[in-house]
């Protein structure tokens, strides 16, 4: 018999804002706003708006491909030293942190 109360789909969904990763969308908006304000005239805002829409389109495309792409990339760069391509009969294994041995 199946579960009477399965986990609702919205519990497992990644948090997105405007179709992209929430933190990346907010960060891109803040960066574009800072650049537009640093220029200090109307041309800064006229330049900042299309740049933000281009960044938003790229983040929406990434969010549609994989909603957790940022977390996966951060984990990939964090563990890059632990899985180098070292195949062969006499290759050295990478250093494994002691807390992984538990």
Main attributes?
mainly alpha, 55% helix, single chain, 2 strands, 102 residues
Task: Provide an overview of this structure.
This protein is mainly alpha-helical and 102 residues long. It has a domain at 15-80. The chain has helices at residues 9-12, 22-39, 42-65, 69-78, and strands at 16-17, 20-21. It has a two-stranded antiparallel sheet. A hairpin with a 2-residue loop joins strand 1 (16-17) and strand 2. Helix 2 (22-39) packs antiparallel against helix 3. The two termini are 38 Å apart.
Summarize the structure.
This protein has 102 residues and is mainly alpha-helical. It is 55% helix and 4% strand.
Can you lay out the helices and strands and say which pair or pack?
Elements: H1 9-12, E1 16-17, E2 20-21, H2 22-39, H3 42-65, H4 69-78
Antiparallel strand pairs: 1-2
Structural class: mainly alpha
SS summary, helix count: 4
Share of residues in strands? under 5%
Q: Segments where pLDDT lies below 50 for 5+ residues?
A: none
Mean pLDDT: 85
Compressed to H and E, one letter per element, the order equals HEEHHH
Estimate the helix proportion, in percent: 40-55%
Global geometry: flat
Number of strands: 2
Strand order of the largest sheet: 1-2
């Amino acid at each position: 018999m199946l579960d009477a109360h399965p986990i609702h789909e919205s519990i497992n969904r990644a948090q997105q804002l405007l179709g992209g990763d929430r933190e990346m969308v907010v960060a891109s908006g803040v960066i574009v706003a800072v650049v537009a304000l640093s220029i200090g005239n109307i041309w800064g805002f006229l330049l900042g708006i299309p740049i933000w829409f281009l960044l938003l389109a790229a983040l929406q495309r990434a969010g549609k491909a994989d909603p957790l792409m940022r977390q996966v990339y951060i984990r990939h760069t964090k563990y890059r030293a632990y899985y180098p391509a070292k195949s062969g009969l006499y290759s050295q294994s990478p250093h494994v942190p002691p807390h992984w041995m538990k």
